[in-house]
Design a protein that fits this description.
The protein has 232 residues and is an alpha+beta fold. The protein contains 6 helices and 12 strands. Helix content is 29%, strand content 25%. The longest helix is centred in the N-terminal third of the chain and has 15 residues.
Length: 232
């Protein structure tokens, strides 16, 4: 079955999709991304993802490529065209295509938009989760704005590779005080010695995870003890 990608206004076959060599996302990591989980064809936590997307764009002073309603239609069409019932849809927005220069293009250029979607085997993922996952720890070496969901993920990629080479699934970053910030591609949680679910507060250098926020709501509704405090 052929996959399709959305690239700057049109759907093309996945294998033929491409961006310009002077796209600032490609050359300077000057862009942001979001990933929605798809359950039974529907975008999960859509409102939270859109809120974080707009915030990330605004923090980097990248223009919104389209309104939320229009973008929702494109995301759903990507899901439909790729026949995704359970899976992921990926959105990337960069500052656009311009002659290579560290400063922003002047005059501004239209932002670039790329969307892909793929299916995920939920049963296989749940079986893997049931077995548990090992984690390594590494010194925190990312930039100071991890609250922005930037495409600049080289430290995260290197951490994931280090984890894989040591037979682990995830790497947790540890700051100068010996406290865990978050994982290379996930927020970090523990059950502490008092039986509380515990995760770092968002004042630290961590991403404001949408799944994290939803999980906090579920935990509180269930009446379980919870603490947004750092841990070693």
């Amino acid at each position: 079955m052929s996959r399709f990608a959305y690239v700057n206004g049109r759907f093309v076959r996945h294998g033929e999709a491409a961006v310009h060599i002077e796209d600032r996302g490609y050359q300077l990591a000057d862009g942001v991304y979001e990933v929605w989980a798809v359950f039974e064809g529907r975008l999960a936590d859509a409102e939270g993802h859109f809120a974080r997307l707009w915030r990330s764009l605004d923090e980097l002073r990248i223009a919104h490529p389209m309104g939320e309603k229009a973008l929702t239609c494109v995301l759903k069409e990507a899901v439909r065209r790729n026949h995704v019932r359970d899976g992921l849809v990926y959105l990337q927005v960069t500052r656009g295509v311009a002659r290579r220069d560290h400063a922003f293009p002047n005059p501004a250029v239209p932002p670039s938009v790329v969307i892909t979607a793929k299916s995920v085997d939920r049963k296989a993922a749940e079986a893997k989760a049931a077995l548990g996952a090992s984690v390594i720890s590494l010194p925190e070496n990312r930039w100071g704005r991890c609250d922005i969901k930037s495409v600049g993920l080289l430290p995260n990629a290197l951490a994931k590779q280090a984890a894989r080479e040591r037979g682990a699934i995830e790497a947790w970053f540890v700051d100068d005080l010996g406290l865990v910030t978050e994982g290379a591609s996930s927020n970090a949680w523990i059950v502490d010695s008092e039986g509380r679910l515990r995760t770092r507060d968002t004042q630290a250098n961590i991403l404001r995870g949408v799944t994290r926020s939803t999980l906090l709501e579920v935990i509180r509704e269930a009446g379980l003890p919870i603490s947004e405090q750092p841990f070693t």
